[in-house]
Amino acid sequence: MNVHIDDLADLVGKDLGTSEWITVSQERIDTFADATDDHQWIHVDAEKAAQGPFGTTIGHGYLTLALFIPLFGGLLDVAGVTTKVNYGLNKVRFPAPVRVDSRIRLVATITGVEDVAGDGVQITLDGVIEIEDSAKPACALQSVLRFYR
To answer: Which CATH number is 2-23+59-148 given?
Structure first.
């Protein structure tokens, strides 16, 4: 969906839809492990993880959270801005692990819009990152994003 910054308030309470799927491959998990220096066996050692609680390697929770931004970008493109800022999170939970080669997607709703100093607009967004064929989501979050004209 494309929207101009001045029209963001019209989206409060509206479902933004569902993003495209992203596959959480072992290569993606390993790259994240290298970037964060988090090489716990449950993420990177397929042989050992096969004997662990999930039967395979799983993506880091923070990898799932990091994928929120590209998933969100697939839901909403805000025009009329010079800068986009991830301002933070009010809440985040990881109800279910993302097993290697699983696909995830985002479902989101804007719950608040307010003007901020510097000719900006801040949105609060409730999101759920779903795992394909899973009853529980990978992540439930409330994100705060800022857009500046």
So the answer is: 3.10.129.10
> What pLDDT is stored for residue 108 in this prediction?
98
**pLDDT number for residue 94:** 98
Domain boundaries in the chain?
Answer: 2-23+59-148
Reading the block at residue 46, the tokens are 């397929």
Q: How many residues does the chain have?
A: 149
Please report, for residues 4, 28, 54, 75, 83, the alpha-carbon distance to residue 49 in angstroms, rounded to integers and kept in the order given: 46, 16, 7, 34, 41
Q: How many helices (H) and strands (E) would you count in the chain? A: 5, 8
Q: Give the chain's residues under pLDDT 70.
A: none
HSE-CB at 144 with a 13 A cutoff on CA atoms is: 10
